[in-house]
Amino acid sequence: MTIRSEPSSVKVARRITRAWARYHCPLPNDQVDALLIVMSELCTNAVQHGRRDSFGVRVWMPTAGELRFEVDDKTPSAPPSLENPENEAESGRGLFLVDILLKELGGTWGFSEDGSCVWCALPLPGTGR
Question: I need a surface site. Which of 45, 69, 86, 114 has the fewest CB within 10 A?
Fold first, then answer.
């Protein structure tokens, strides 16, 4: 889906992702909640750092045992690095949080070669992966 690049759109992306995940994926509620935090952080980054009026969100299951999603801000740039900001910093923890949550869920993530798209892959429970 294509979403307008404005702060209120993060909530829209989260709601759509929640509905899709609950209907299509065998994820427990706590894992759906973690997925939604990841999606919120990635969409917020697309709004804040993308230089277009929209960004793309894609969620799908390429196999019965895997969930994949992407957020594409359509803005080629150097892929950002993980930061561990100072305690007093008011921002800069998003990708750090994404990394922790995806590791906890047994997933992986990264950026496209041109840095415009972040992808995530999660094994689904009960699939032996």
Answer: 86
Confidence of residue 90 (pLDDT cuts 50, 70, 90): low
* Structural domain count, the chain: 1
Q: Do the domain assignments include residue 68?
A: yes
Q: What residue numbers bound the domain in which 83 lies?
A: 2-123
**Do 70 and 58 contact (CB within 8 A), yes or no?**
yes
Q: How far apart are CA 71 and CA 116, in angstroms?
A: 8
CA 87 from chain center: how many Å?
24
Burial of 104 (0-12, 13-18, 19+ CB in 10 A): exposed
CB contact at 8 A, 59 and 43 = no
Identify the CATH number of the domain in which residue 108 sits: 3.30.565.10
Structure tokens at 6: 């404005």
Predicted TM-score (pTM) of this structure: 0.89
